[in-house]
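In the previous chapter we treated chains in isolation. Here, by contrast, the input contains two separate entities that must be folded as one system, with a combined length of 415 residues.
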Amino acid sequence: MKAQKKSKRKADKPLDRTKAKKFTCLVCPTCCELETDGSNVNGARCPKGEAFALQEMVMPMRVVTTTVRCDTVGGVKMVPVKTAAPVPMARLFEIMKEIKALRLTEVPAIGTRINAGPAEHPVELVVTGEVDD
Amino acid sequence: MAVAVGAAEAGLRRILLLERHSRLGGILNQCIHVGFGLRYFKEELTGTEYAFRYKKKFEQTAAEVSTNSFVHTVHPEKKVTFVCPEGEFLVSGEHVVLATGCRERTREMLTTPGTRPAGIFTAGLAQEMVNIHGLLPGKNVVIVGSGDIGLIMARRMTLEGAKVHAVLEILDHLSGLVRNKIQCLDDFCIPLFLSHEILEIMGRDRVEGIRFRDNATGRVKEMACDTLLYSVGLIPERDLLLAAGIEPGDGYSVAGNADYVHDLVDWVSRDGEKLGRALRSA
């Protein structure tokens, strides 16, 4: 079983040692150990992992998950949300600040899209859970 | 839910699901972070989304659901007593399946010495406070144990404006998933101290600090903090069977995390369905 899994790994390519960096893949729970120099990727068992390593090299991106405050008649509810797409790590706290400033007045359905952030840096959020009214 | 789906697939009818909360999904409802469902749904979902998806699947079955229903006793001869807003009921069946999940280990179970001030939480409780109730348990946090919930909460508390000073782990290796260490600790420069043991909790009314030891060198250090989160393991919850003196087997089964602790919810669903299908022949 294990040998079969390993065969999915492609043969290592030569890397530019001056630029090579190691990452652990965050795409899935397999956690492949990746190494890349910005053009070739070693260690990935799938194409998603290769794309992850190349992205991580130039600008790490993450999906942010948090809650948005919702003031309903029944009291304050926290609505779980995630960003519709991964956002740059460097802007994480800026984005959190914008999400925290949001106030909803009624509980949205799961899957509802909410726009946050200033016009030049819009952030789209997706409601990820059901909340009782 | 998964056991009911499996049992319905195998052709069992008259399935009753008792849930103590108002909503199905259990702990998933407070897990707002991503990382669920890549194996089962082949898509990266949050815990809440996973619960929603699975509930849709569950609703295809003819299983009956009773929420706000607290099972207080399991009796011999496969009878169960539960209370709900309508009153107290005794139901009987051919199979009784416990899918009660886990409880978190607490400070008391570790018998950490020191005072007993406010500000000591299990990581899962802190998760419920932040994600469901919108309350921040504290501002200066130390996390004891490197379980997955502790790692996830280190990130969550940081995003919500708290300062997580350190994660202490008594073992020489991480106990959670590697990906959680990277995306929750390394991304936010939160130090992980391996082979470090908490020795004492200090503070009169509120936690004021801790004393801890580096077991590799034997050096004892102190650190100021106002909140401690314990993420030191999960214990399968089987008290209902224990209280009745019943062993699993012979019409009584234990499913999911109440059976053993799974690292991914995807495997809980898979195992639950498998158990449900096997009930037919049992």
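Chain A has a mean pLDDT of 89. The helical segments of chain A are 2-7, 47-58, 92-101. Compare these points with the single-chain example from earlier in the chapter.
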